[in-house]
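Take one record.
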Amino acid sequence: MKLSYFLILSVFFVSSAFSEETKKVSVSGQCTAEVAPDRGSVNFVAERVEKDAATAIKKATELHESLRAEFKKLNLKDLEFSSSEYSVQERKEWEKNKNVSKGFAARLGLKAVTHTIADLGRLMEIAGRLGVTETSGLTTYVSDAKWMEEKNRCLDAAAKNAEVKAQALVKSLHAKLGKVLQITETSSVAPGPVQPMFMERAMMKSDARGSAPTPTIEGQKQSLVQDVQVVFLIE
């Protein structure tokens, strides 16, 4: 039994001595990048106010469908639509100490999403020409696919940055950098939607459905910060 204890202790001391002799260096690497958005969206509301709800719904639907049809004529690549709003409400105003009905308002929302941010301006020009007076929610953002591509590129750059720093450290000590013992991704900043501008009702009014100018839309770049921690052996 004593012999077994002696052998176990001997192995422990040898392993400990080997661990103490293992020389290593731990460095951090960082990459920062500005990523241009590759997707944009905007919301259009077709609204009509009429004396009865049925007429309001009919005219709002006609405007909504005309908007979709004109957008499709542009043959824009990757243009997607989704319904964003539908409501029918009675409009009332306070007159002579009582609520007076002014008719019914029907609203149909159409959200447009595209990979070509500059095309959003063309959509807004068409909406103004057709008589759409409410446009909002203009947003640009980086798609998941592009963000992952940029993140992987930045990870590679951060790892190389860590290697350069480690080389500089061991060179000053007249040593040689060995293999990578461990590498850890420590942080990265996730993207979020950016609203470069917010367009309210009054901003999209055109004169008697005349031609409205085509606004220039520029997406705001988003910051990507990627950190890694790398442990190298020293030979």
User: Anything to note?
Assistant: The longest strand covers residues 98-114. Confidence is low (pLDDT under 50) at residues 1-19, 197-209.
